[in-house]
Design a protein that fits this description.
There is one protein chain. The protein is mostly helical and 454 residues long. It folds into two domains: 10-41 and 276-450, Serine Threonine Protein Phosphatase 5, Tetratricopeptide repeat (Alpha Horseshoe), CATH 1.25.40.10; 53-268, Collagenase (Catalytic Domain), CATH 3.40.390.10. Helix content is 53%, strand content 5%. The chain has 18 helices and five strands. It has a five-stranded mixed β-sheet. Residues 1-18 form the signal peptide. It holds the Pfam family DUF2927. Keywords: Signal.
């Protein structure tokens, strides 16, 4: 999964650029040279999936027998036997703890036999962090990625240049060696997200589905740690009834028994099966998010995605996400229209999934727009909903951003003491979410520039 956590809001950027002036008072441009200790979320078990086992079986087949670009996979593959993980040196300081937490969850929740390799022990999965610039030169479209049949970055580059078919997932009949490549110079949260997504794909599903509301196997990037659904997919992947080399039909015949055994609650779930996603919608939604496309073209593609979603009669993540994407584009030119789209998306996410992690994103957008419109009370109401969702998502970057917006709104209301406390707390969460003091202060400056100047 090519993952890039995008949290810099279109509304923030455009509004900030429009309002920031060189004569801005020094205290509003102030940065923090000394930051409080970092705050992080502790690892916790994913919430159980509420879907039926019949729906889960469909999801499993679509995730496991197709690549993201649409290519069909001829056979089912996984690691056979214990899985050892090694980290190449040097590695970012936060990687070790987050990796250990992830592997512990995989053993407990997904029953995957995965552990850290001992010194000198052969590793099935190698994790290597390299400079982001080096990664971008080799694989421009990737933020982090996973490749089969190689052990490390040098092996990947050598194999890709000399025997490209060896790093083609469609050629596999089983999994023996896999390398996860991620940037070394990104925030701790982005490193953790890369670990969760790429190790999950190293172990199991290789596809992403926009219709999934509770999974990292979704290109909307709203989920950044493995969910209960994801653990179910991985547990089924390593069930004793399956083995590498099986055809799609062979796996399909075994899935009902597998899910009934590992997920008894799913026997009573809603049996509704999801509809297919037409290529036209995928082309529109992906094009609308491409920064290489002109703004006017992106706006047209976003509107088309919304139109297709409504015509399909979807009552799921695809409709809400279409509206969300259109809102981000409209925020650059029409704040009122953007607010309407974000509100629609927020209401749909709530109707479909309750107080879900999606609200962290819609609340951030809506609170930023309210702040820039000089509506601090409205901004605070969105922030309160968003903070709960960001905590549920274990998204420190979103949590920090929302606290920064809260601080500005409180300042506008004259509640200086409360504003200072919120701002200080935002910096602590920003240490994990954004990484460097420079990145934290850039975000803080963007948020501060939103509030109308006195």
């Amino acid at each position: 999964m090519f993952f890039r956590l995008v949290l810099i809001l279109a509304a923030l950027c455009i509004t900030a650029c429009a309002q920031t002036k060189s004569s801005e008072p020094a205290q509003r441009r102030a940065v923090f040279d000394e930051l409080p200790p970092a705050k992080t979320f502790s690892a916790r078990r994913g919430a159980p999936s509420s879907r039926s086992n019949a729906a889960l079986a469909q999801d499993f087949l679509e995730l496991s027998f197709q690549l993201e670009r649409g290519q069909r996979l001829p056979v089912f593959t996984r690691f056979e036997g214990p899985i050892k993980v090694a980290v190449a040196s040097p590695a970012p300081s936060t990687l070790d703890r987050d990796l250990k937490d992830l592997l512990a969850r995989l053993r407990k929740e997904a029953r995957v036999p995965i552990t850290i390799a001992k010194r000198g022990e052969r590793a099935q999965i190698v994790i290597q962090a390299i400079p982001d610039a080096a990664l971008k030169r080799a694989v421009p479209q990737a933020a982090c990625f996973v490749a089969p049949n190689v052990s490390g970055w040098k092996d990947y580059k050598r194999t890709r240049n000399r025997a490209r078919s060896k790093v083609d997932w469609a050629k596999l009949t089983t999994r023996d060696r896999v390398t996860v490549i991620l940037p070394a110079d990104i925030s701790p949260q982005e490193i953790r997200s890369c670990l969760h997504e790429e190790i999950a794909q190293a172990l199991g599903p290789l596809n992403d589905l926009y219709r999934l509301p509770d999974s990292v196997f979704n290109d909307d990037d709203f989920h950044i740690v493995l969910t209960g659904f994801d653990m179910l997919m991985l547990r089924a992947t390593y069930d004793k009834s399956l083995k590498s080399g099986m055809s799609r039909d062979q796996v399909a015949k075994r899935l009902p028994g597998i899910f009934n055994r590992i997920n008894p609650r799913g026997r009573r779930g809603n049996a509704e099966i999801a509809t297919n996603t037409p290529k036209q919608w995928l082309t529109a939604i992906n094009g609308a998010q491409s920064m290489r496309t002109s703004l006017s073209r992106r706006a047209a593609l976003a509107a088309q995605a919304v139109k297709i979603a409504k015509r399909q009669g979807w009552q799921d993540n695809r409709l809400a996400f279409s509206l969300y994407v259109e809102g981000k584009i409209l925020a650059r030119t029409n704040a009122a229209a953007a607010t309407r789209r974000f509100t629609e998306a927020d209401e749909l996410y709530t109707a479909f999934y309750g107080k879900s992690v999606h609200l962290a994103q819609t609340a951030t957008q809506l609170s930023a727009l309210a702040l820039s419109a000089g509506q601090p009370v409205r901004a605070l109401s969105h922030v309160d909903a968003g903070l709960a969702a960001a905590k549920k998502a274990q998204n420190a970057a979103a949590y920090s951003t929302l606290l920064m917006i809260k601080a500005e709104a409180l300042d506008m209301l004259g509640r200086k003491s409360n504003a200072g406390a919120a701002r200080l707390d935002s910096l602590a969460w920003g240490r994990y979410g954004f990484g460097s003091p420079e990145n934290i202060n850039k975000r803080l400056s963007k948020i501060r520039s939103l509030a109308p100047k006195a």
